[in-house]
Amino acid sequence: IDVGRGGWSLLLGQLTKQASRILEKFADARSGNLPDGRQSTEDWLKGYTSNATVHALFRNLCAAIFACNAAELPARAFLTYFTSKGAFKKFGFCPQGTIGVWNSLGTAIKRNGDIWLGTPATTIHTANGKVEGVTVLRNGEKVRIDTDLVVSNAGPKATVALAGSEAFPADYIARVNNDLRPAANIVINVASREPLINHPGIVTFGKTRRLCNMANLSATCPELAPPDWHLYVAYAVPVPALGDFDSDAEVALALEDLREQFANFDQTKILSIRVMRDDWPAQRSCAGYDLPRETGIEGLWCVGDAVKQYGNGGTQACAETAKIVSDAILAARPRRSAGRV
Ligand SMILES: Cc1cc2nc3c(=O)[nH]c(=O)nc-3n(C[C@H](O)[C@H](O)[C@H](O)COP(=O)(O)OP(=O)(O)OC[C@H]3O[C@@H](n4cnc5c(N)ncnc54)[C@H](O)[C@@H]3O)c2cc1C
Protein backbone atom coordinates (compact mmCIF):
# COMPACT_ATOMS: atom_id res chain seq x y z
CA ILE A 1 0.00 0.00 0.00
CA ASP A 2 1.47 3.32 -1.05
CA VAL A 3 0.56 5.59 1.84
CA GLY A 4 1.73 8.56 -0.20
CA ARG A 5 -1.00 7.94 -2.81
CA GLY A 6 -4.20 7.51 -0.91
CA GLY A 7 -3.17 4.19 0.62
CA TRP A 8 -4.24 5.37 4.05
CA SER A 9 -7.91 5.49 3.06
CA LEU A 10 -7.66 2.06 1.44
CA LEU A 11 -6.08 0.69 4.60
CA LEU A 12 -8.16 2.44 7.26
CA GLY A 13 -11.41 2.30 5.29
CA GLN A 14 -11.43 -1.48 5.62
CA LEU A 15 -10.87 -1.40 9.35
CA THR A 16 -12.84 1.37 10.96
CA LYS A 17 -15.88 3.53 10.35
CA GLN A 18 -13.79 6.40 11.73
CA ALA A 19 -11.39 6.31 8.76
CA SER A 20 -12.67 9.59 7.36
CA ARG A 21 -12.16 11.39 10.69
CA ILE A 22 -8.58 10.17 10.87
CA LEU A 23 -7.98 11.11 7.23
CA GLU A 24 -9.40 14.56 7.91
CA LYS A 25 -6.73 15.01 10.57
CA PHE A 26 -4.06 14.01 8.06
CA ALA A 27 -5.43 16.68 5.72
CA ASP A 28 -5.34 19.21 8.59
CA ALA A 29 -1.73 18.23 9.28
CA ARG A 30 -0.86 18.75 5.63
CA SER A 31 -2.05 22.33 5.91
CA GLY A 32 0.02 22.86 9.04
CA ASN A 33 -2.61 22.23 11.70
CA LEU A 34 -0.78 19.82 14.01
CA PRO A 35 -1.23 18.66 17.61
CA ASP A 36 1.32 20.07 20.04
CA GLY A 37 4.43 18.01 20.67
CA ARG A 38 3.22 16.61 24.01
CA GLN A 39 0.37 14.35 22.85
CA SER A 40 1.49 10.83 21.91
CA THR A 41 0.43 9.16 18.67
CA GLU A 42 -1.49 6.57 20.70
CA ASP A 43 -3.46 9.20 22.65
CA TRP A 44 -4.13 11.16 19.47
CA LEU A 45 -5.47 8.04 17.73
CA LYS A 46 -7.61 7.10 20.76
CA GLY A 47 -9.49 10.32 20.14
CA TYR A 48 -10.82 8.86 16.90
CA THR A 49 -10.93 5.08 17.21
CA SER A 50 -10.49 2.25 19.69
CA ASN A 51 -10.15 -0.34 16.89
CA ALA A 52 -7.37 -2.70 18.05
CA THR A 53 -6.12 -3.45 14.51
CA VAL A 54 -5.82 0.24 13.66
CA HIS A 55 -3.92 0.81 16.90
CA ALA A 56 -1.66 -2.15 16.13
CA LEU A 57 -0.92 -0.78 12.66
CA PHE A 58 -0.08 2.66 13.98
CA ARG A 59 2.11 1.12 16.67
CA ASN A 60 3.95 -0.96 14.10
CA LEU A 61 4.41 2.00 11.76
CA CYS A 62 5.89 3.97 14.67
CA ALA A 63 8.09 1.00 15.46
CA ALA A 64 9.16 0.34 11.86
CA ILE A 65 9.98 3.94 11.04
CA PHE A 66 10.94 5.54 14.34
CA ALA A 67 11.97 2.51 16.45
CA CYS A 68 9.53 3.38 19.21
CA ASN A 69 5.98 2.69 20.37
CA ALA A 70 2.91 4.79 19.56
CA ALA A 71 2.74 5.82 23.23
CA GLU A 72 6.30 7.21 22.96
CA LEU A 73 6.14 9.14 19.68
CA PRO A 74 4.59 12.63 19.61
CA ALA A 75 1.58 12.63 17.24
CA ARG A 76 3.03 15.83 15.86
CA ALA A 77 6.16 13.95 14.71
CA PHE A 78 4.12 11.06 13.26
CA LEU A 79 1.87 13.40 11.26
CA THR A 80 4.78 15.57 10.15
CA TYR A 81 6.55 12.50 8.81
CA PHE A 82 3.55 11.16 6.95
CA THR A 83 2.41 14.47 5.53
CA SER A 84 5.65 16.22 4.67
CA LYS A 85 8.64 13.87 5.00
CA GLY A 86 9.69 10.57 3.42
CA ALA A 87 6.79 8.36 4.54
CA PHE A 88 7.98 5.37 2.51
CA LYS A 89 6.93 7.17 -0.66
CA LYS A 90 10.15 5.93 -2.14
CA PHE A 91 11.85 3.05 -0.46
CA GLY A 92 14.79 0.95 -1.49
CA PHE A 93 17.74 -1.07 -0.38
CA CYS A 94 21.12 -0.93 -1.97
CA PRO A 95 22.06 -4.16 -3.83
CA GLN A 96 25.53 -4.01 -2.23
CA GLY A 97 24.01 -3.54 1.23
CA THR A 98 24.14 -0.31 3.19
CA ILE A 99 27.92 -0.13 2.72
CA GLY A 100 27.29 0.28 -1.02
CA VAL A 101 25.77 3.72 -0.45
CA TRP A 102 28.77 4.91 1.54
CA ASN A 103 31.25 3.41 -0.91
CA SER A 104 29.67 5.48 -3.68
CA LEU A 105 29.88 8.58 -1.52
CA GLY A 106 33.48 7.66 -0.64
CA THR A 107 34.40 7.52 -4.34
CA ALA A 108 33.09 11.07 -4.75
CA ILE A 109 34.92 12.36 -1.65
CA LYS A 110 38.20 10.81 -2.79
CA ARG A 111 38.13 12.92 -5.95
CA ASN A 112 38.89 15.95 -3.80
CA GLY A 113 40.31 14.54 -0.61
CA ASP A 114 40.93 11.51 1.55
CA ILE A 115 39.11 9.25 3.98
CA TRP A 116 40.78 7.60 6.94
CA LEU A 117 38.96 4.49 8.08
CA GLY A 118 39.66 2.73 11.39
CA THR A 119 40.84 6.05 12.79
CA PRO A 120 38.93 6.86 15.97
CA ALA A 121 38.93 10.41 17.23
CA THR A 122 40.22 10.48 20.80
CA THR A 123 39.96 14.20 21.59
CA ILE A 124 38.30 17.26 20.15
CA HIS A 125 40.38 20.31 21.08
CA THR A 126 38.71 23.59 21.93
CA ALA A 127 39.69 26.91 23.46
CA ASN A 128 37.56 29.93 24.37
CA GLY A 129 34.40 28.45 22.88
CA LYS A 130 36.02 27.60 19.53
CA VAL A 131 37.14 24.32 18.06
CA GLU A 132 40.87 24.06 17.37
CA GLY A 133 41.52 20.51 16.25
CA VAL A 134 41.08 16.77 16.66
CA THR A 135 43.42 14.06 17.80
CA VAL A 136 42.91 10.72 16.10
CA LEU A 137 44.47 7.31 16.56
CA ARG A 138 45.97 6.28 13.24
CA ASN A 139 47.93 3.03 12.89
CA GLY A 140 48.34 2.99 16.66
CA GLU A 141 49.73 6.54 16.80
CA LYS A 142 48.09 9.71 17.98
CA VAL A 143 47.88 12.33 15.24
CA ARG A 144 46.68 15.87 15.94
CA ILE A 145 44.89 17.68 13.12
CA ASP A 146 44.58 21.42 13.59
CA THR A 147 41.33 22.75 12.20
CA ASP A 148 38.67 25.31 13.01
CA LEU A 149 35.92 23.02 11.71
CA VAL A 150 34.77 19.65 13.06
CA VAL A 151 31.55 17.91 11.99
CA SER A 152 30.69 14.88 14.11
CA ASN A 153 28.16 12.13 13.45
CA ALA A 154 29.17 10.17 16.55
CA GLY A 155 26.15 11.73 18.29
CA PRO A 156 26.01 14.62 20.79
CA LYS A 157 26.81 12.37 23.76
CA ALA A 158 30.00 10.94 22.25
CA THR A 159 30.95 14.36 20.86
CA VAL A 160 30.67 15.92 24.32
CA ALA A 161 32.79 13.11 25.76
CA LEU A 162 35.49 13.80 23.14
CA ALA A 163 35.66 17.54 23.83
CA GLY A 164 34.95 17.37 27.58
CA SER A 165 31.70 18.69 29.01
CA GLU A 166 33.39 21.76 30.56
CA ALA A 167 34.06 23.10 27.05
CA PHE A 168 30.32 23.46 26.29
CA PRO A 169 27.71 25.94 27.50
CA ALA A 170 25.82 24.56 30.51
CA ASP A 171 22.43 24.65 28.75
CA TYR A 172 23.76 22.46 25.92
CA ILE A 173 25.12 19.92 28.40
CA ALA A 174 21.74 19.92 30.18
CA ARG A 175 20.01 19.10 26.90
CA VAL A 176 22.49 16.30 26.09
CA ASN A 177 21.93 14.84 29.56
CA ASN A 178 18.15 15.24 29.70
CA ASP A 179 16.60 15.41 26.22
CA LEU A 180 18.15 12.60 24.20
CA ARG A 181 15.95 9.49 23.85
CA PRO A 182 17.86 6.65 22.18
CA ALA A 183 15.37 4.38 20.39
CA ALA A 184 15.93 0.62 20.57
CA ASN A 185 15.44 -2.09 17.98
CA ILE A 186 15.80 -5.87 17.83
CA VAL A 187 17.20 -7.17 14.55
CA ILE A 188 16.70 -10.80 13.59
CA ASN A 189 18.43 -12.06 10.46
CA VAL A 190 16.77 -15.19 9.13
CA ALA A 191 17.73 -17.65 6.36
CA SER A 192 15.05 -19.99 5.14
CA ARG A 193 14.80 -22.87 2.68
CA GLU A 194 11.09 -22.24 2.36
CA PRO A 195 9.72 -18.80 1.47
CA LEU A 196 8.15 -16.97 4.42
CA ILE A 197 6.74 -14.08 2.41
CA ASN A 198 6.69 -13.54 -1.31
CA HIS A 199 6.29 -9.77 -1.49
CA PRO A 200 9.49 -7.93 -2.34
CA GLY A 201 10.31 -4.97 -0.11
CA ILE A 202 9.23 -4.54 3.48
CA VAL A 203 6.09 -5.86 5.12
CA THR A 204 4.63 -4.07 8.14
CA PHE A 205 2.64 -6.31 10.47
CA GLY A 206 -0.72 -5.75 12.13
CA LYS A 207 -1.47 -7.26 15.53
CA THR A 208 1.79 -8.45 17.04
CA ARG A 209 3.51 -8.36 20.41
CA ARG A 210 6.82 -6.77 19.38
CA LEU A 211 7.49 -7.68 15.73
CA CYS A 212 6.94 -4.65 13.50
CA ASN A 213 8.30 -5.31 10.04
CA MET A 214 10.29 -7.68 7.91
CA ALA A 215 12.29 -7.14 4.72
CA ASN A 216 12.42 -9.76 2.02
CA LEU A 217 16.01 -9.12 0.98
CA SER A 218 16.59 -12.00 -1.44
CA ALA A 219 13.40 -11.29 -3.40
CA THR A 220 15.01 -8.08 -4.64
CA CYS A 221 18.67 -9.09 -4.32
CA PRO A 222 18.85 -12.87 -4.89
CA GLU A 223 22.66 -12.68 -4.94
CA LEU A 224 22.55 -12.11 -1.16
CA ALA A 225 21.55 -15.75 -0.55
CA PRO A 226 22.89 -19.08 -1.83
CA PRO A 227 20.67 -20.86 -4.38
CA ASP A 228 17.44 -22.24 -2.84
CA TRP A 229 17.75 -20.02 0.24
CA HIS A 230 15.76 -16.92 1.15
CA LEU A 231 17.14 -14.12 3.29
CA TYR A 232 14.96 -11.99 5.55
CA VAL A 233 15.55 -9.40 8.23
CA ALA A 234 12.85 -8.99 10.83
CA TYR A 235 12.64 -6.00 13.16
CA ALA A 236 11.01 -5.86 16.55
CA VAL A 237 10.70 -2.92 18.89
CA PRO A 238 10.68 -3.47 22.66
CA VAL A 239 8.28 -1.98 25.17
CA PRO A 240 9.43 0.54 26.21
CA ALA A 241 11.74 1.40 23.34
CA LEU A 242 12.93 4.71 24.81
CA GLY A 243 13.55 3.39 28.32
CA ASP A 244 15.04 0.39 30.08
CA PHE A 245 13.79 -3.08 29.11
CA ASP A 246 14.64 -6.76 29.57
CA SER A 247 16.45 -7.72 26.34
CA ASP A 248 15.94 -11.49 26.70
CA ALA A 249 12.22 -11.21 27.40
CA GLU A 250 11.72 -8.80 24.49
CA VAL A 251 13.62 -11.06 22.07
CA ALA A 252 11.48 -14.01 23.22
CA LEU A 253 8.30 -12.05 22.44
CA ALA A 254 9.61 -11.14 19.00
CA LEU A 255 10.37 -14.80 18.23
CA GLU A 256 6.91 -15.79 19.46
CA ASP A 257 5.47 -13.33 16.95
CA LEU A 258 7.55 -14.77 14.12
CA ARG A 259 6.34 -18.29 14.95
CA GLU A 260 2.78 -17.06 15.03
CA GLN A 261 3.02 -15.17 11.76
CA PHE A 262 4.80 -17.94 9.85
CA ALA A 263 3.64 -21.52 10.34
CA ASN A 264 6.91 -22.76 8.80
CA PHE A 265 9.17 -20.53 10.91
CA ASP A 266 10.68 -23.45 12.82
CA GLN A 267 12.50 -24.73 9.72
CA THR A 268 14.40 -21.42 9.37
CA LYS A 269 17.97 -20.78 10.43
CA ILE A 270 18.36 -17.70 12.64
CA LEU A 271 21.64 -16.14 11.57
CA SER A 272 21.82 -13.46 14.23
CA ILE A 273 19.82 -11.56 16.80
CA ARG A 274 21.03 -8.12 17.82
CA VAL A 275 19.51 -5.81 20.35
CA MET A 276 20.40 -2.25 19.35
CA ARG A 277 20.05 -0.01 22.40
CA ASP A 278 21.62 2.61 24.68
CA ASP A 279 24.83 3.94 23.08
CA TRP A 280 24.37 1.85 19.88
CA PRO A 281 20.67 2.22 19.17
CA ALA A 282 18.49 2.38 16.05
CA GLN A 283 18.22 6.16 16.37
CA ARG A 284 20.42 8.12 18.78
CA SER A 285 17.34 10.14 19.57
CA CYS A 286 13.76 9.35 18.65
CA ALA A 287 11.91 11.74 16.35
CA GLY A 288 10.49 14.58 18.42
CA TYR A 289 13.46 14.50 20.83
CA ASP A 290 16.23 15.90 18.65
CA LEU A 291 18.98 18.28 19.71
CA PRO A 292 20.25 21.27 17.72
CA ARG A 293 23.05 20.75 15.23
CA GLU A 294 24.95 23.64 16.81
CA THR A 295 26.87 22.60 19.88
CA GLY A 296 27.54 25.98 21.43
CA ILE A 297 31.20 25.67 20.37
CA GLU A 298 32.10 27.66 17.28
CA GLY A 299 33.15 25.39 14.42
CA LEU A 300 31.91 22.18 16.09
CA TRP A 301 28.74 20.73 14.59
CA CYS A 302 26.73 17.58 15.12
CA VAL A 303 25.03 15.77 12.24
CA GLY A 304 23.16 12.49 12.17
CA ASP A 305 20.32 10.73 13.91
CA ALA A 306 20.14 12.78 17.11
CA VAL A 307 19.90 16.18 15.44
CA LYS A 308 17.25 15.57 12.79
CA GLN A 309 14.70 18.03 11.45
CA TYR A 310 11.46 17.70 13.42
CA GLY A 311 9.49 14.60 12.47
CA ASN A 312 12.08 13.09 10.17
CA GLY A 313 13.69 9.66 10.61
CA GLY A 314 16.23 7.22 9.19
CA THR A 315 19.20 7.75 6.94
CA GLN A 316 17.34 10.30 4.80
CA ALA A 317 17.03 12.46 7.91
CA CYS A 318 20.75 12.04 8.66
CA ALA A 319 21.69 13.02 5.12
CA GLU A 320 19.45 16.06 5.44
CA THR A 321 21.27 17.18 8.61
CA ALA A 322 24.58 16.92 6.75
CA LYS A 323 23.24 19.09 3.95
CA ILE A 324 21.89 21.69 6.35
CA VAL A 325 25.22 21.89 8.19
CA SER A 326 27.27 21.96 4.97
CA ASP A 327 25.11 24.74 3.60
CA ALA A 328 25.50 26.75 6.82
CA ILE A 329 29.29 26.30 6.78
CA LEU A 330 29.58 27.24 3.10
CA ALA A 331 27.38 30.28 3.58
CA ALA A 332 29.64 31.50 6.41
CA ARG A 333 32.91 30.80 4.63
CA PRO A 334 33.91 32.05 1.18
CA ARG A 335 35.14 29.24 -1.03
CA ARG A 336 38.93 29.07 -1.21
CA SER A 337 39.08 28.41 -4.95
CA ALA A 338 36.54 27.81 -7.68
CA GLY A 339 35.34 24.23 -8.04
CA ARG A 340 36.53 23.07 -4.63
CA VAL A 341 34.12 22.55 -1.79
C1 LIG B 1 19.09 -2.28 12.90
C2 LIG B 1 18.85 -0.95 12.29
C3 LIG B 1 18.04 -0.84 11.17
C4 LIG B 1 17.84 0.37 10.58
N1 LIG B 1 17.10 0.43 9.45
C5 LIG B 1 16.98 1.59 8.79
C6 LIG B 1 16.28 1.65 7.55
O1 LIG B 1 15.78 0.65 7.04
N2 LIG B 1 16.17 2.85 6.95
C7 LIG B 1 16.73 3.97 7.46
O2 LIG B 1 16.65 5.03 6.85
N3 LIG B 1 17.39 3.95 8.66
C8 LIG B 1 17.53 2.79 9.32
N4 LIG B 1 18.20 2.74 10.52
C9 LIG B 1 18.69 3.99 11.11
C10 LIG B 1 19.99 4.46 10.48
O3 LIG B 1 20.84 3.36 10.22
C11 LIG B 1 20.70 5.41 11.44
O4 LIG B 1 19.81 6.40 11.88
C12 LIG B 1 21.88 6.08 10.71
O5 LIG B 1 22.81 5.12 10.27
C13 LIG B 1 22.58 7.03 11.62
O6 LIG B 1 23.55 7.70 10.87
P1 LIG B 1 24.61 8.60 11.59
O7 LIG B 1 25.54 9.08 10.55
O8 LIG B 1 23.92 9.58 12.46
O9 LIG B 1 25.36 7.61 12.60
P2 LIG B 1 26.10 6.23 12.31
O10 LIG B 1 25.69 5.62 11.02
O11 LIG B 1 25.94 5.42 13.56
O12 LIG B 1 27.60 6.69 12.15
C14 LIG B 1 28.36 7.19 13.26
C15 LIG B 1 29.77 6.67 13.08
O13 LIG B 1 30.62 7.30 14.02
C16 LIG B 1 31.59 6.35 14.39
N5 LIG B 1 32.23 6.80 15.62
C17 LIG B 1 31.74 6.80 16.88
N6 LIG B 1 32.67 7.31 17.73
C18 LIG B 1 33.74 7.65 16.99
C19 LIG B 1 35.02 8.22 17.28
N7 LIG B 1 35.39 8.55 18.53
N8 LIG B 1 35.88 8.40 16.25
C20 LIG B 1 35.55 8.08 14.98
N9 LIG B 1 34.36 7.54 14.65
C21 LIG B 1 33.47 7.33 15.64
C22 LIG B 1 30.79 5.07 14.54
O14 LIG B 1 31.64 3.95 14.46
C23 LIG B 1 29.86 5.17 13.33
O15 LIG B 1 30.43 4.56 12.19
C24 LIG B 1 18.42 1.53 11.14
C25 LIG B 1 19.23 1.43 12.27
C26 LIG B 1 19.44 0.20 12.85
C27 LIG B 1 20.33 0.08 14.04
Radius of gyration: 22 Å
What would CATH call the homologous superfamily of the largest domain?
FAD/NAD(P)-binding domain
Main sheet makeup: 5 strands, antiparallel
Strands of the biggest beta sheet: in what spatial order?
Answer: 6-7-8-5-9
Enumerate the distinct ligands. Answer: flavin-adenine dinucleotide
- The total strand number stands at 10
Output the CATH class name of the largest domain: Alpha Beta
Sequence of secondary-structure elements: HHHHHHEEEEHHEEEHEHEEH
Q: Structural class given helices, strands, pairing?
A: alpha+beta
Description:
Helix 2 crosses helix 5. Helix content is 35%, strand content 18%. With 341 residues, the chain is α+β, with helices and mostly antiparallel strands. It contains 11 helices and 10 strands. It has 3 domains: 3-84, no CATH class; 98-180 and 286-332, 3-Layer(bba) Sandwich (FAD/NAD(P)-binding domain), CATH 3.50.50; 185-276, Polyamine Oxidase, Chain A, domain 2, CATH 3.90.660. It binds flavin-adenine dinucleotide. The site of flavin-adenine dinucleotide (FAD) has 17 residues, from helix 7, strand 5 and helix 11.
